[in-house]
Amino acid sequence: MSDQNNLSGRVALVTGAAKRLGRAVALRLANEGADVAVHYGKSAAGAAELVAEIEKLGRHAAPFSAELTSVPAIQKLVNDVVIHFGHLDILVNSAANFLPTKFGETTEHTWNSSLDTNLKAPFFCSQSAAPHLARSGHGVIINFADIGGILGWRDFLPHSLSKSGIILMTRVLAKELAPAVRINAIAPGTITMPGDPPELQADFIRRAPLRRTGRPEDITDAVLYLLTAEFLTGQTLILDGGRTL
After folding, report:
1. Which of 8, 34, 155, 207 yields a CA-CA distance of 20 to 30 A from 105?
2. Of 38, 33, 59, residue with least CA distance to 49
3. What is the sign of the dihedral through the CA atoms of 45, 15, 75 and 10?
4. Residues 199-242: pLDDT tens digits?
5. Domains in the chain, ordered, with CATH?
6. Chain-centroid distance, C-alpha 110
């Protein structure tokens, strides 16, 4: 944790904040001084636990449930956050799914689920948040892609397409929203959390030059960098231990 609350007074909306990387990002933002709107889909208990943990840090937090495949639900989410906190400075689009879909077995339902959750939702969250972020004076959006959007994975075709779309969307929206709002993306490789099975790491470790998986703090350090790098927009930061090399 930083000794200085660099984000003091700022309000961050983190989608998918009740679990895994979204939770780690929300906690890091709170540690750095931000108040946090904790979005969740079905993980109400996890969201409540996270809110309590953030409040123990002396920051304000509140949970917000929304189905992000629905544009009206997204618009209501952003509106509710702004009403509750008074303003919005940071949007972190971290909510996502990761659905295995072999080419011959891909269904319309799986296709829609991947693209709607991973690409449509971040776009409309960004669209809804943009006017509020522009008014903040230091509005920032951070999207989550992954290296599937760069390498392309045969057994995860819709997922890979959705994450490739995030990378290009980040570039386009950087031009659309500048200079009032900066937007960048992070493309992680395999990030392991406490309790993840060892077999999740083995293949990635073999392929990555740094010979390890990523840790949550690797991601949260990158988030903090992107929030404070005031001359950076439209870029995707690849955090993969060299895997894509």
Report:
1. 207
2. 38
3. positive
4. 767 777 888 888 888 899 999 999 999 999 999 999 999 999 98
5. 11-239 (3.40.50.720)
6. 21
